[in-house]
Amino acid sequence: MAKIKLDEIDHQILDMLIDNTRIPYTDIAKKLLISAGTVHVRVKKMEDAELIQGSSLTLDYVKLGYSFIAYVGIFLEKTHQTKFVLERLEEIPFVTVAHITTGKFNIFCKIRARDTTHAKNIIFKIDDIDGVSRTETMISMEESINDKKRLMHRIFNDM
User: What is the per-residue pLDDT across 82-123, written as a single tens digit (0 to 9) for each?
Assistant: First the structure.
């Protein structure tokens, strides 16, 4: 896949979209002293190149009652069961992220729960999936860093 070329205007547009995916193109244009049409064309170019893939919404899970986060490392009986186990994990809505990994675990996932009892029930559901030999859980005490911008700026500087 070809690497997309971005200039400083593209970087600034992405910077603003990372802060707020719902910012109107007219607001971006005013801040960058360019036309809204230019913003639209540049965003479309990045979407067509699949650099931008959709947009996301950030929720305050604490206000929704889901403040408990845990990471679950999953050991499989056989690696060929990976796809089957991932399909079962997708059926558990509290499993929000899953990665196929190398090293200690076959699959590593993130869960969100209301509290420890709820988390225990989710982990038991994971343990009950055919092909899972055992799990190892780590409780998140606090999310200290969640910053997409630092990486984005580093990537831009390396370009």
Answer: 999 999 999 999 999 999 999 999 999 999 999 999 999 999
In degrees rounded to 5, what are phi and psi of residue 19? Answer: -65, -40
Amino acid, single-letter form, for residue 27: D
Task: Spell out the residues 6+ positions from residue 99 whose beta carbon is closer than 8 angstroms to its own.
Answer: 107, 108, 109
DSSP 4-71: PP--HHHHHHHHHHHH-TT--HHHHHHHHTS-HHHHHHHHHHHHHTTSS--------TTTTT--EEEE
Domains and CATH numbers, the chain: 8-56 (1.10.10.10), 68-139 (3.30.70.920)
CA distance linking residue 23 with residue 109, whole number of Å? 31
Dihedral pair phi/psi, residue 67, rounded to 5°: -90, -10
pTM: 0.81
